[in-house]
Design brief:
This protein is an alpha/beta fold and about 600 residues long. It has three domains: about 100 residues, no CATH class; about 90 residues, Beta-Lactamase (2-Layer Sandwich); about 240 residues, Rossmann fold, CATH 3.40.50. Helices cover about 35% and strands about 15% of the residues. Strand 14 and strand 15 form a beta hairpin. Helix 3 packs across helix 6.
């Protein structure tokens, strides 16, 4: 640096005589405030930096040298300042060296800027704002720039700005928390200025990479104007946060990118939980305020043509990757908007993988494969978050690729791999209360679409009647899920849901229809150690008087707990399955009986 060359040619170090950190530590007390630090550092900096020579150099280089001196003194234990205090101290000394008042707003000196290629789609400021003439101040009286933020006038990468340094610091591990706070503070200042300068329409048409490059240049200008000092890593994080707010889901983007997280639960702006490995964890993610949460919620539902407002304060939706979302806002959600995201798994889960993970036994996996290939009507039962949809996806992979499948869901999330799949999704009513399409409407319509199998994401109401009718009228191999804690309760729930349709049938008639329609009930549960296990596979045998009879083929027997993990074994009932003749029709009876 320029100061060291000067001192080397000056003979013995004046800095050492003045208390330079290169000299020995004199045991002075540690300084932990800006005033004391300024008094300690002033003679050292005056000895190391020639103000006459400094006036001929860019402000950035001076700031780098001052920062280096402060770091040397701090490493010797003479200073104890955080990143923000060091930033302010650097600004004070640079202003002093250049002969500027402490509160003076530094203006960039004219400098030749290397030419660069013009961007394909520049982000232009709102109409009516014109570029400032050469030499005019780049700061408006209120602190906001009134110039056009145009990509063609931004500096090329590597070109120096003669402005306050925003990338002179390397973030140290001990300052990580403070640095994060600094980025958050900078974002709150820069975001409204940035939104005034860019053309939102042009931004929405750009790729994320191109937008990031252009936003980075504009942010660099605003950081200089606002005298905010961020290093390159912090500036990169700031640009990422701004783009996430513009194009993505803001603070939720890092959580969505984490493959270990399966659920994200937003309870207002200051509380975000995630589920990782079956356990809930409170994260450090926060939103700016309730309006910020509601803005993200609106962005989610708008993308699929739905709305969330006071007239429709709760809604089911999905993200672009297929993740399922439930949103509920005030006045129903008292403490602010709540967003629940069930993440789309990028890994394809199969029954073999579930067996390897000990969610089921290999014998259970074999029986379920035979059941799916034998076109049994299967009911998957379990509680919220127990893995019903994941299991449904795994079993659907065994469906023959030559079959026509119709899926019906509130929010489409099934991931069928077959080539001939028709996906149907319900629709809420519009503002006038018209146009609602229910699950029952879609099930009725699906029967006219010549399906081989109908897969219902979740049975929760009167659509149970139509689903049972479909299973009883030639659509073998259909599957659906239901919320229940045990197989017998699943059958009771189905019976109750048939009653919700307003059809006046005797209980025995309803149960007879259920017994004829359902072949197999698979019970899945998320246990207290966070692991999801299939706890029962029960077969519907028929009717005895007014009671549906079942037999349990497999069950999970709890045995104990070791290091927080439950132990147990999957037991076979040793019973010959009632559907063995059906498996024999598909030449799968030997495989079935060997597994039992």
């Amino acid at each position: 640096m320029f100061s060291r060359r000067k001192m080397e040619s000056a003979g013995p170090s004046a800095a050492t005589r003045s208390g330079d950190p290169d000299g020995s530590d004199d045991g002075s007390p540690n300084v932990n405030n800006i005033a004391g630090a300024r008094a300690l550092l002033k003679p050292i900096i005056n000895a190391r930096i020639d103000s006459t020579m400094a006036n001929q150099l860019p402000r950035r280089d001076i700031a780098l040298e001052v920062k280096e001196i402060i770091s040397e003194v701090q490493q010797r234990g003479r200073l104890s300042l955080n990143i923000l205090e060091i930033r302010d101290l650097v600004t004070l000394f640079v202003n002093e060296i250049l002969g500027e008042p402490e509160n003076h707003r530094t203006k960039a000196e004219p400098e030749t800027v290397a030419p660069r290629e013009e961007a394909a789609t520049p982000l232009i400021s709102p109409a009516g704002i014109t570029p400032a003439p050469d030499g005019a101040s780049d700061a408006a009286p209120n602190g906001a720039s009134d110039t056009v933020s145009e990509i063609t006038t931004a500096p090329a990468p590597g070109t120096r700005h003669q402005t306050d340094s925003f990338d002179i610091q390397k973030t140290e591990a001990t300052y990580d928390q403070t640095a994060s706070s600094s980025v958050d503070e900078a974002k709150s200042i820069i975001q409204p200025i940035l939104m005034e300068r860019i053309d939102a329409g042009a931004a929405s048409e750009m790729s994320r990479g191109e937008l990031a490059r252009q936003i980075n240049d504009i942010v660099a200008e605003i950081l200089s104007e606002q005298k905010l000092n961020l290093n390159l890593m912090e500036q990169r994080d700031l640009v990422t946060m701004l783009i996430n707010d513009m194009l993505g889901l803001g603070p939720l983007e890092p959580l969505l990118a984490d493959e270990e997280i399966t659920d994200i639960m937003v309870n207002g702006p200051n509380q975000v939980y995630v589920e990782r490995r079956g356990k809930l964890e409170l994260t450090t993610v926060k939103f700016q305020n309730n309006a910020h949460v509601q803005n993200i919620a609106s962005r989610i539902v708008t993308a699929i043509g739905r709305r969330v407002d006071e007239s429709s304060p709760l809604v089911d939706a999905r993200l672009a990757d297929g993740s399922r979302v439930n949103i509920i806002i005030p006045p129903l959600a008292i403490d602010g908007a709540s967003i629940s995201i069930r993440k789309f798994s990028k890994k394809s889960i199969t029954l073999d993988i579930m067996a390897a993970q000990q969610n089921i036994s290999p014998a259970m996996a074999t029986v379920m494969k035979v059941a799916a290939r034998s076109q049994l009507n299967i009911l998957i039962s379990g509680g919220t978050g127990s893995g019903k949809t994941t299991l449904l996806n795994a079993m659907s992979q065994l469906i023959d690729h030559g079959e026509r499948i119709v899926t019906i869901e509130d929010a489409a999330e099934l991931q069928l791999q077959q080539p001939h799949v028709v996906r149907l999704e319900t629709r809420p009513a519009n503002l006038e209360g018209q146009g609602e399409i229910t699950m029952r409407d879609l099930v009725k319509n699906a029967l006219r679409m010549r399906p081989d199998r109908i897969i219902l994401g979740e049975v929760r109401g009167s659509e149970a009647v139509d689903m049972l009718q479909a299973m009883n009228t030639g659509h073998d191999g259909s599957m659906c899920t239901v919320h229940a804690n045990r197989p017998r309760e699943a059958l009771t729930r189905l019976e109750n849901m048939v009653g919700m349709a307003g059809i006046n049938l005797p209980s025995k008639a309803v149960r007879t229809q259920i017994a004829a329609a359902i072949d197999l009930i698979v019970q899945i549960s998320r246990m207290r150690d966070g692991i999801r296990r299939i706890t029962s596979i029960a077969e519907v045998v028929g009717m005895e008087e007014d009671v549906i009879t079942t037999q349990e083929l497999f069950s999970f027997q709890f045995e104990g707990e070791i290091d927080g993990k439950l132990t147990g074994s999957f037991k076979s009932g040793g019973i010959r399955p009632h559907f063995t003749p059906r498996a024999e029709y598909f030449s799968l009876d030997r495989m079935l009986l060997e597994a039992i």
